[in-house]
Amino acid sequence: MSSRYPVVISGVTKGMGRAMALRFAELGHPVSGCGRSADRVAQVRDVLGPGHLVETLDVTDAGSVRRWARATVSELGAPGLVIANAGAVHAQRPVWEVEPALFAEVMRVNVDGVHTMTHAFLPLLLTSGGMFVAVSSGWGRNPRHHLAAYTAAKFAVEGYVGAVAQEVPPHVKVFAIAPDSAVDTDMLATCLPEEHHTYPGPDEWARTAVDHLLHDLPHEPSGGGRSFPAPTRQI
Question: I want to staple 130 with a disulfide (CB 3.0 to 4.6 A). Which of 73, 80, 97, 111 is the partner?
């Protein structure tokens, strides 16, 4: 596999996904990304420029994700790294105040979205080798009050990855990996409005995260419970 293999990332229109996409592209990797907002997809497409693929789609739509996988191979080649990053959260509230439709939406994006990515892209990795990474959360390992839906979703992702890691052959690795420290994104502002600004921004975080994905994670055994190292800040 080329050292500049294609990288697939869901949810690239903002936050951590966008920052990782730009950083991988800066390092010479063709990036295949997706997002739900056509306007934001167009913006990311313009920033990345030629040699990349950014599609407008919802990761809970399995047919759209399969078509995206086929387009990725056709335009960029087989990926060496697939990152299921797209996520959803809601403002903190007691679980009895969370409408079932909202609970279902959080579960769909965070859990079903990981499975649609696995279903579409993992067969490509089985052929050529590589890594599949589901972005998790510390709240998927330690429950967070007033965020029961998000906590449940990320606990599910951790368990799902643990099972899938036992199914794949040795030339494929599967991880659930969470930021060691929170990242100042729109999602964090939604659930931690008073303190989100005290954490590193996504561009700062992505430099350390992408380096970890490229150079450290491939040497670790598959499974959940992994963490992106916190960025080292300059004093």
Answer: 80
Q: What's the domain range around 59?
A: 7-228
Counting every residue written for the chain, the total comes to 235
**What CA–CA distance (Å, rounded) separates 201 from 155?**
25
The two structure tokens encoding residue 9: 């990332």
Cα–Cα distances (Å) from 222 to 31, 49, 134, 135, 188, in that order, read 23, 33, 12, 14, 27
* Cross-strand pairs, 131: 81, 173
Rounded distance, CA 154 to CA 21, Å?
22
**Is residue 68, in this structure, part of any structural domain at all?**
yes
CATH code for the domain in which residue 151 is found: 3.40.50.720
The answer to whether the CB of 119 falls within 8 A of the CB of 72 is no
Mean pLDDT per 10-residue section of the chain, whose length is 235 residues: 89 94 97 97 97 98 98 98 94 94 96 98 96 91 91 96 97 93 71 70 89 95 90 57
Catalytic pick among 5, 150, 160, 199: 150
Q: Is residue 73 part of a domain?
A: yes
Q: How many domains is the chain built from?
A: 1
